[in-house]
């Protein structure tokens, strides 16, 4: 009722018209996909031809099929007639016009045992033919969703997918009747998926997360008053043995450009139009702050602080992972990245955009001069999807070694950390600036070596023995002069990279 701003009677009418609840209890529980499909069908029917017994109600904005109607002749040369009836939904008068031949079908005179769909010669769709899911547990899952309000939306969706997997693996059996054998069957299904012995194999990471989410759901279930009869050790039966994870080959490392290649890609991107300039700025800031695409697209102008070389990741208004807020200092990468972002910020403010407007608005606002025409209009909302960022990376990847995704920027920045001779403190600061609580997260998930890079590194082990012998032959004065020269060169390079 809140979502669609309708009354209780409207929901009841939708049920009468074909919106199928999960069960017969009140208040109604509906699957989200079921509600979406119901309204899609109603919208599609709005533009379809009326069946012989249907009227179009302009109040309900939908075709309706009254049982009784009155036929009235009209004084026209064509002999047109009108049918008048009462809408079964809103009880208002409705009218349909046509020739006598058009209006010869009366629903009450039609075959009494045929459904409304069968009076049309088109494709027959049985009620509920899209719902192949189980519904016995929907009320329990709804209760879990209320408790999951402490999670971010993306996290809730991930947990819900795991719960639905559990439900599918036990063939829709009520959660109130779960046994240890049921959970063991779910675990066996996960083993098949991780081994690749099924039609839909999953990676080690996916299986690990699914098992973890199912365990947490079972732990929540056992705390509920209505689950007092369930075995208390149910969660323990979902844990997979280490051998199952060990037999799964690791996923191939993600493709990402080194920072030198990313610099070349940025310089090669076209910059004639406002659209192309936006593409360049989105590509540049993804590396400058190691930003996720969703976070990037939801940034506001006020979140970019040029003078401080800072990006403010505000989890309260931006779409960030787990709602995390973070101050991100620009990474010390080639100056072309920061110059592109600075140029875009200047351009946006020249076009009249304000602090609360998105850093990267939809093109319709940029190309039409929206802010100059409506300077007092409310703040513009950020784009809902990351499609624009994905397209920018596709354009940048033309002529590159691979087609890179927006997430590859985080891998590039993580790899750059390992390529530099940093102190322990600097490495820790680099990881935290990426939003990682520990260095291990950076090392485990980002910037991993490709098989070729790993092979080359192995082959080069020991190749420095000749150089080591040469160093041992140097005097202390010669060695000190060389170290001084090396440090001077490194400091100059660092100053250049910091602008």
Please give a handful of descriptors for the protein shown.
mainly alpha, 4 domains, 3-stranded antiparallel beta sheet, flat, hpI Integrase, Chain A, 20 helices, 499 residues
Q: What this model shows, in words?
A:
The chain is mainly α and 499 residues long. Strand 1 and strand 2 form a beta hairpin. The chain is 45% helix and 7% strand. Strands 3-4-5 form a three-stranded antiparallel sheet, with no helix packed on it. A three-stranded antiparallel sheet has the order 6-7-8, with no helix packed on it. It has 20 helices and eight strands.
Oligomer classification:
single chain
Q: What sequence of helices (H) and strands (E) makes up the elements?
A: HHEEEEEHHHHHHHHEEEHHHHHHHHHH
Topology, number of strands: 8
CATH topology of the largest domain: hpI Integrase, Chain A
Gyration radius from CA atoms, angstroms: 32 Å
Helix content: 40-55%
The name of the CATH architecture of the largest domain is Orthogonal Bundle
Shape: flat
First and last CA, distance: 56 Å
Number of helices: 20
Main beta sheet, described? Answer: 3 strands, antiparallel
**Mean pLDDT reading:** 81
- β-strand percent reads 5-15%
**CATH class annotation of the largest domain:** Mainly Alpha
Strand order of the largest sheet: 3-4-5
Label the structural class.
Answer: mainly alpha
What count of domains describes the coordinates? 4
Sequence stretches where pLDDT stays below 50 over 5 or more residues: 105-131
